[in-house]
Amino acid sequence: MTHKLRGSAAIVGVGLGGVPMTPGRTALEILGEAVHRALADAGLRLGDVDGVFTGSSYHFLAGLSVPEYLGLRPKFVDSTMVGGSSFVGHLLNAALALDAGLCDVALICYGSNQGSGLGKLKSMSEEQPYEAPYQPRYPVSSYALAAARHMHEYGTRREDLAEVAVAARRWAQLNPEALRREALTIDEVLAARMVSDPLSVLDCCLVTDGGGAVILVRAERARDFPKAPVHVLGCAAATWHRQIACLPDLSTTAAAESGPRAFAMAGVKPADVDVVELYDAFTINTILFLEDLGFCAKGEGGAFVRGGAIAPGGRLPVNTNGGGLSCCHPGMYGIFTVVEAVRQLRGECGERQIRGAELAVAHGNGGVLSSQITAVLGTAATL
């Protein structure tokens, strides 16, 4: 039986702002730029927006601060915050609100000046009581634990992690909006300064500015907009823990739940997907999510990415904009997975375009592998 929300909402506009660095601008100014670019993309005016879905690393009451800054008085506001995955989750919440008639034009938006405004040492998290006595480097030590466990349990190598970083860089070299576009080799990743064993500085995401915006309407309206609509076919969230010490199995994430449920809603399988956008805050993320979402078996992620398999020309296009490792990572990256997926399905990605892409996955990660949210997006041909 088809889920009632499958394809009920469609993305009709996307935009980026402040990528990758725009010194001297506030987080809200960067957000505003992304919003206005998304509105122009959709052929809409700001006053058409009556639903706002947002989150922030800087504004505790983002659901108030963002509409105020934009000059909106929305009918529906959602500022659910589960870290960087929040904006992928907002796709589901926006689809629900649109389906219920609570709003007609839903705006998902985020902005951050972390790279130029806050610096690399700023923490955006409350203290973790079970872990604080050991003085870990947050959040990298948490991901290093997962990487070390995966290596111990499945024989994954540092070279496999390096494959992920090199693949992301090769995609970034095809993306004029990416911050890091110089060549990168596996040997350079392995020789880079160690941050938290086994993760080197090149296994870690960038710290940049950036903002993104996504505009959705009900599917029956979508054909009336300038660009081809991208339909939300499935979306699901799963949360297992907050602190990494409370994750029952360091080598398996809640994506093992969110992925199957999102695919079930969409009525598709991982093998059907043409392009995959994953939240790669660290190289281990990509390997874990490829496994947990069903693109390869548990424990086979390291072998799956070898030999440029997820790089341009490989078996599966992953993080085609360069990801958080080489394109941008302004504190929270989830919305960028959605924007890149939409652009790929519209055929707007130039040199990095995946020919004939009709089905895409955008996957968000929040906290320390804590919140996992998977969205399946498709062209009109997939309805």
What do you see in this structure?
The chain is α/β, with parallel strands linked by helices and 383 residues long. It has two domains: 9-119 and 209-229, 3-Layer(aba) Sandwich (Peroxisomal Thiolase, Chain A, domain 1), CATH 3.40.47; 139-199 and 234-382, Peroxisomal Thiolase, Chain A, domain 1. It is built from 13 helices and eleven strands. The chain has a nine-stranded mixed beta sheet, sandwiched between helices. A two-stranded antiparallel sheet has the order 5-6. Strand 5 (194-196) and strand 6 form a beta hairpin. Helix 6 packs across helix 10 (283-292). It is globular. The two termini are 14 Å apart. The relative contact order is 0.20. This is Thiolase. Residues 236-379 form the Thiolase C-terminal domain. It holds the Pfam family Thiolase_C_1.
Q: Quick recap of the structure?
A:
InterPro entries: Thiolase, Thiolase-like, Thiolase_C_2. The protein is α/β, with parallel strands linked by helices and 383 residues long.
Properties at a glance:
383 residues; alpha/beta; Peroxisomal Thiolase, Chain A, domain 1; 2 domains; nine-stranded mixed β-sheet; two-stranded antiparallel sheet; 13 helices; 17% strand; Thiolase; Thiolase-like; Thiolase_C_2
Average predicted local confidence, pLDDT: 96
**Low-confidence segments:** none
In whole angstroms, how far apart are the ends? 14 Å
CATH architecture of the largest domain: 3-Layer(aba) Sandwich
Radius of gyration: 19 Å
From the spread of the alpha carbons, the general shape counts as globular
Name given to the CATH homologous superfamily of the largest domain? Thiolase/Chalcone synthase
Can you write the helix and strand succession as a string?
A: EHEHEHEHHHHEEEHEHEHHHHEE
Strand content: 15-25%
